[in-house]
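Appendix B. One record, verbatim.
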Amino acid sequence: MMEHQIAPSKGARKNRKRVGRGDAAGQGSTAGRGNKGQKSRSGGGVPPWFEGGQLPLIKGLPMKRGFHNPFKTYYSLIKIETLETFEAGEHITPELLLERGYLRNLNLPVKIVGDGEISKALTVVAAKFTQSAKAKIEAAQGTAEEIAA
């Protein structure tokens, strides 16, 4: 047997039905598209997101629309009053905050915010500090060290 002699088995290949080729040809006239309407026309049809002419769902959800900045940095926020629970002179790091249960995980950088008061001298290491938080830590004779986020 040679390459030019190879053929599929009898009945393995079937010719496609040629629709819309005159009224006598199987599915003539409407060619299986029903009668009239948008979907019967050439190039007709609605896009997948079309909702039948009613107000689209997304227009009723304004919070889901608009610009989303993929480069925004989100922080885990820790209040100054939380730091009051630590011993004086302690070295506070994100790992220690996680260990004590003040953080869920270390996926986000830590930011110390100036909510509350502090009376102990602490060394606090975090990615960011608000101006008021830094001022309160330094006023209590502590140090605020920033690390790369």
